[in-house]
Amino acid sequence: MATLAFSSRPIAYSAAFLLRTKPPRGNHRLLPPKALASSSSAAASCLTPPSPRGAPDPDPDPGADPTPLFLRPASHPVPAAALAAFRRRAEALVPASAPHLRRHLRWLLDDAAPDAGSGSDPALLRAPLDELEALWLRHVRDRRPFQYVVGNEHWRDLVVAVREGVLIPRPETEAVVDMARKVEGFEAGWWADLGTGSGAIAVAVARELGPEGRVFATDVSEVAVEVARLNVERYGVQDKVEIRHGSWFKPLEDVKGKLMGVISNPPYIPTDDLPGLQPEVGWHEPKLALDGGKDGLEHLLHLCEGLSSVLRPDGFFVFETNGNKQSEFLVDLISTEWSSSFRDVEAVLDFADIKRFVTGYRR
């Protein structure tokens, strides 16, 4: 019986998870420019801590196995002919205008059938064939992000588990880890990752810390807390990362004034811009992690206001923003309204030369 020809993309296997060559990241946020509020109105709004805008999106099938596909055991035998027939049906759904879906299909089969390339018959799958068919249909027809289909995203040197209800980490956010690493005394410091989501930042920072370093990662979403804990355990950094459930600074009362650094990628997309996001983002990723309020600044301003209470002297902060206008506005606001508390506040470019980040130090 003929066997299937799979991608020669190298795969390294371990007992805990698969590490694949890093795929192109195509499902990024679309960040259309929008006029920001005046400094007076924005400054006033920062006095009231914002409420989360919307609950995490539920799983499409509450009865489905919540374990990411790539972490499930290969325990479902399927005849090679049936798997080949599935592949033909899946390829027939790919429109000529979306050739990237053929790569996604190869990667899906790589994750779902890790031993298929060996020629074994039957092949052992990580999910029943009808579930794979449903996953593929939702990706092609409903524009469900591929990261949710396979349950992971490649980020820095990590393979981060993700699922519905958790924001997919973006490549531009990788830069915040490099910025933190440049802070003097980084390895021994206590750090906070506010709005941790999948825990990607917390895990990446923890892997660079010394024996005394710690990361306190907070999130208001119970789904995010669950996924972040999974990623912390997968990478074996439980001794360095503490996941805390709660909104922004609320879970950090016991470490106020002790943090070397605060890192956050908060919701920053203006509410009115959400309908214009590409379907993979707007239809499927949690609004809780996207919606930044009227001007996209609601949570960013709350973070700015609370910084001085948690950072130690000379403590560092870095926030991701919607881009040039938000970053320039925040730099001006912090440098004027809180000039007695912070120094060296600046906007930092991402790899696309957009002012994506705001950084600074506590006096």
Question: What does this protein structure show overall?
Answer:
Residues 1-49 and 55-59 have low confidence and may be disordered. By secondary structure, the chain is of the alpha/beta class. It has helices at residues 39-45, 80-92, 100-112, 129-141, 146-150, 175-181, 200-206, 222-234, 279-282, 298-310, 324-337, and strands at residues 11-13, 18-20, 76-78, 123-125, 152-155, 158-161, 190-194, 214-219, 241-245, 259-264, 311-320, 342-349, 355-362. The chain is 30% helix and 19% strand. β5 (152-155) and β6 (158-161) form a beta hairpin. A seven-stranded mixed sheet has the order 9-8-7-10-11-13-12, with helices on both faces. Strands 1-2 form a two-stranded antiparallel sheet. Strands 3-4 form a two-stranded antiparallel sheet. The chain is elongated.
Encode the helix/strand succession as letters: EEHEHHEHHEEHEHEHEEHHEHEE
Molecular shape: elongated
Radius of gyration, in Å, reads 22 Å
Reading side by side through the largest sheet, how are the strands ordered? Answer: 9-8-7-10-11-13-12
Number of helices: 11
Mean pLDDT, nearest integer? 85
Question: Helix content range of the residues, please?
Answer: 25-40%
Q: What is the count of β-strands?
A: 13
pLDDT < 50 runs, ≥5 residues: 1-49, 55-59
Beta-strand content estimate: 15-25%
Structural class of the secondary structure composition?
A: alpha/beta
Taking the alpha carbons of the first and last residues, their distance comes to: 71 Å
**Main sheet characteristics:** 7 strands, mixed
